[in-house]
Each structure stands twice: as structure tokens, then as C-alpha cells.
Specification:
71 residues
């Protein structure tokens, strides 16, 4: 995907990665209250929800890649 145009990157990300991230979001949302917030899994759920908007930003912007660093 690295060598593709910005438009091709966005199209591919929308097709393949967006559904996956949305499914993970559903799982996190439906299970977050079932685990202690201080557990490793609870902390991971909180982190995912707190950073979800930043995480999915790369789907609509072909200039950036998925990264856990600051955008």
C-alpha cells in the first residue's frame, strides 16, 4: 500500500481496515463494563476508546499511516 496514490490508500483502508476497526470498537464498547478498569484488559479498552478518533483518522487521510505516536 506504501507505493499507492493517496486516493488508492484511502479506498483500500475504507474497504479493509475500517470494518475491522469498527468491529473492534463494538467489542470494546460491549465489554468495557464487564472487566475491571484497572486490569490490563480494562486499561486496553480505555486506551482504545480514548484514542479511537485519532486511530481512525488515518483511514481518511492517505498521507498518514497507522501509528501509535502523535499525529
Amino acid at each position: 500500500i506504501k507505493e499507492r496514490s493517496l486516493e488508492e490508500k484511502v479506498k483500500k483502508r475504507r474497504e479493509e481496515q475500517k470494518p475491522l476497526l469498527e468491529e473492534i470498537k463494538k467489542i470494546v464498547d460491549s465489554n468495557q463494563n464487564k472487566v475491571p478498569g484497572k486490569s490490563k484488559l480494562g486499561e486496553a479498552f480505555i486506551y482504545y476508546n480514548n484514542n479511537y478518533e485519532t486511530l481512525i483518522r488515518y483511514i481518511e487521510d492517505g498521507r498518514i499511516g497507522p501509528d501509535n505516536g502523535e499525529v
